[in-house]
Specification:
2 domains, FAD/NAD-bd_sf, iron, 551 residues, iron-sulfur, alpha/beta, FAD/NAD(P)-binding domain, metal ion binding
């Protein structure tokens, strides 16, 4: 490999800022990638669209979704240790808060965000000193509030990107031998010209039973009429993940409905209540937002889990047929900054409208309204955004077309294609297949919304994740740990922040090795990559046999 690959400064214009690694996306996966790269001595730039880092983990997703905690280590283990330490030091070992944090796996958004930032800026798990200076300036440059404007690809190699300050309009051009796309949307690899997928594959393409247009009864575990398995361009519904306070001293109650409020999108919940679809689950499993006081009430539209600090993690329950969010994300992925902002605002209004509806609508029985009024926006969270989360929950967008495509067969028991073991494994996935609905209620829907695959823990098993899913088929100099190369069904399992942190860590280490050996990321020495990851506590293998979530 020529020196030109290792030193992009020889090919860029004067005034371009040069780094060893440039990462687009301050998600937990991007922060893990930056942490790994900087700790290995690589000067790194981390660029984030929002004014805050941390993605969903710092924006309302209060639970680290893991069914088998022994299968994800590395930087994620450091993150939860920092969360645990916070609650221990602030409240004490015997405190309620220490119990509520679930050994560091549950956290308030501000606490989770702070833990991620501490990890990013420290030398190691036991060394909180700032990073030592790099040869060419600060070892880590963080640029929040910036969006991608363009990417320059020369001879199928990503060479530089131009970013724009979303407030001032000022542009910067960044160059590096290695780029990492850690966005939820896959924006960098799309701009660089890499091939990608958008929407759902057909059953025929990979022989996946749950692919394509699907009606699946998650309780009876059977396919329903209307299932065709046909491919389409629909995506699982986006929502916001709420952090709501139960402590009235920290409450910021809604005093008016959101702009453009309309109660009609929520009226389907009355039919759900009458039909018994807002009751409790057949199998009660901890950590899944089951709150018995909400069963058979309209408040069951929410899935509520207790967090420390008098707060709750609140998901929007996708099981009721009145769930109003599917299809509201259409055109988000292909939209420009203004279009995405408009669609995100629509989701915000729908979310606040649902909360207002549950708390104030006169048609809802008073006792149910009073139950909903126990939950409010938290006064001490998201203080620069009216106490509302900043990150839209983009559950799925583009998916890379990489050197290997992870499919349903790789992540389930009894598959005929794929393999449970990969020679280039760099992490382990384990979360059950779980896709939100893709369409609003259709005529004839009586059991489930189209596209919903609800926690298929009875078929999902731990699976090794190959490095190849992060590598584009033809673009050099780019690694993709988040919107990686999978089918829609497989993405419905891998799309968890702890797993993305593990992939991000692997991406950061791989970027270091690419520079060290002056080889493109696709050619890094795999044994050396795996050995470094093991030294950092990453879990690369799993014991064969047994399904996750089978307790």
């Amino acid at each position: 490999m020529t020196e030109q690959y290792a030193n992009p400064q020889a090919t860029v214009n004067p005034g371009v800022q040069s780094f060893d690694v440039v990462i687009l996306g301050g998600t937990p996966g991007g922060m893990a990638a930056a942490t790994a790269a900087v700790r290995l001595g690589r000067r790194t730039a981390l660029v984030e669209h929002h004014d805050h880092l941390g993605g969903m983990t710092a924006s309302g997703l209060g639970k680290s979704d893991i069914e088998n905690r022994s299968l994800i280590g590395g930087l994620f283990a450091e993150f939860i240790a920092r969360v645990r330490r916070h609650y221990h030091d602030r409240y004490g070992l015997a405190s309620v808060e220490m119990q509520q944090c679930q050994d560091g796996y549950y956290a308030e958004p501000a606490v989770a965000g702070a833990a991620l930032e501490q990890m990013l800026r420290s030398r190691g798990p036991q060394d909180d000193r700032p990073h030592a200076s790099a040869k060419e300036g600060e070892p880590l440059v963080v640029l929040t509030g910036h969006r991608l404007q363009s990417a320059l690809t020369i001879d199928a190699r990503l060479s530089q990107i131009t970013i724009v300050n979303r407030r001032s309009g000022e542009t910067r051009t960044l160059a590096a031998p290695v780029f990492i796309d850690a966005t939820y949307e896959g924006d960098l690899y799309a701009a660089a010209g890499a091939e990608f997928r958008l929407g759902r594959e057909s059953r025929e393409e990979y022989g996946e039973p749950h692919a394509g247009v699907v009606y699946f009864d998650y309780q009876q575990r059977q396919f329903l009429p209307g299932t065709t398995g046909e491919a389409d361009d629909r995506l699982p519904a986006y929502t916001y993940r709420l952090c709501l306070a139960t402590d009235v001293r920290n409450a910021a109650p809604l005093t008016r409905p959101p702009e453009n409020y309309d109660r009609r999108p929520y009226l389907g919940y009355f039919d759900d209540l009458a039909a018994g679809r807002l009751g409790g689950p057949k199998q009660f499993k901890p950590g899944r937002g089951y709150h018995p006081a909400h069963f058979n009430t309209l408040v069951r539209a929410l899935s509520v889990t207790e967090l420390p600090g008098g707060k709750t993690d609140v998901n929007i329950n996708p099981r009721p047929l009145g769930f109003p969010f599917p299809e509201e994300n259409r055109d988000y992925v292909s939209g420009d900054d203004a279009a995405r902002t408009r669609i995100a605002q629509r989701h915000r209004e729908l979310t606040l409208g649902l909360l207002w509806f549950l708390q104030q609508d006169a048609q809802i029985p008073l006792e149910q309204r009073e139950l909903a009024r126990q939950y409010h926006l938290p006064r001490d969270e998201f203080t620069d955004n009216d106490h509302f989360p900043f990150q839209l929950y983009v559950r799925e967008a583009r998916r890379l077309a990489g050197e290997y495509t992870l499919t349903e067969h790789d992540i389930t028991s009894g598959g005929q294609a794929g393999s449970s073991s990969h020679a280039d494994r760099i992490a382990v996935g384990e979360f059950p297949i779980d896709s939100f609905p893709c369409r609003k209620r259709q005529a004839g829907d009586r059991v489930v919304l189209e596209g919903y695959l609800g926690m298929l823990d009875y078929i999902t098993r731990p699976y090794e994740i190959p490095y190849r899913i992060m590598i584009p088929q033809r673009i050099e100099g780019l690694i993709v740990p988040v919107a990686a190369s999978t089918t829609h069904v497989a993405y419905s399992s891998i799309r968890m922040e702890p797993t993305w942190m593990a992939l991000g860590q692997a991406a950061g280490v791989a970027a270091h090795l690419s520079i060290l050996h002056q080889q493109p990321p696709r050619s890094v020495p795999l044994q050396e990559l795996q050995e470094l990851l093991r030294q950092q506590g990453q879990v690369l293998e799993h014991a064969p046999g047994g399904n996750v979530g089978s307790d």
